[in-house]
Amino acid sequence: MMILLVDGYNVVNRVPEIRTSLDEGLQNARNRLALQVSTWSHEHPGVEPIIVFDGRFQLSGGREQRIAGVRCIFSLAAHGGDDELIRFVRDFKGRKPDITVVSDDNNVGNNCRAHGAVVEPAAFIMIRKSRTARAPRKGPGEGRGLDMKSKAAIDAELKKKFGL
């Protein structure tokens, strides 16, 4: 099984469609993110989504809970979510390329990449799966995944979306 590991508050603050939900409180923003990740995971079967949030778990409703069906982990100390994400990747017993970390945080991205995970930007969870897309991406060297034409089309679409 592949794992989608989301840097919770980083994504909340970096994705405009989710950031607006902060106006109605932090719990609302967590719910909105979990709903988006749940939607993403339904479009990508075979991927287990996990969201990691910073913060004292006593104030967050428990060390681990499910929101919109998505497993959410709360770090044991404020600003410990980054360390929790890195530790998760480092200690993962399966194939490291089977983990995709979603974060715009350089520390998280660089450390997770160094431990073998794939790192995607925060906006990654907003990308809708096209009807013609193939099976989820496999690890390097497996001979599966997107062909060069599809990769070029995705790159062109993202460049257009981000004005590059």
Describe this structure as you would to a colleague.
With 164 residues, this protein is an alpha/beta fold. It contains six helices and six strands. The chain has two domains: 2-129, Rossmann fold (3-Layer(aba) Sandwich); 130-164, no CATH class. A six-stranded mixed sheet has the order 3-4-2-1-5-6, sandwiched between helices. It starts with a strand and ends with a helix.
Gap between N and C termini? 34 Å
The tally of structural domains comes to 2
Biggest sheet, spatial arrangement of strands? 3-4-2-1-5-6
Helix-strand pattern, N to C?
EHHHEEEHEHEH
CATH topology of the largest domain: Rossmann fold
Described by strand count, sense and barrel closure, the largest sheet is: 6 strands, mixed
In a few lines, what is going on in this structure?
The chain has helices at 8-14, 16-19, 26-43, 81-91, 106-114, 148-161; strands spanning 2-7, 47-53, 64-67, 70-74, 99-102, 118-120. The chain is an alpha/beta fold and 164 residues long.
What topology emerges from the helices and strands here?
Blueprint (H helix, E strand, L loop, with lengths): L1 E6 H7 L1 H4 L6 H18 L3 E7 L10 E4 L2 E5 L6 H11 L7 E4 L3 H9 L3 E3 L27 H14 L3
Parallel strand pairs: 1-2, 1-5, 2-4, 5-6
Antiparallel strand pairs: 3-4
Helix pairs in contact: 4-5
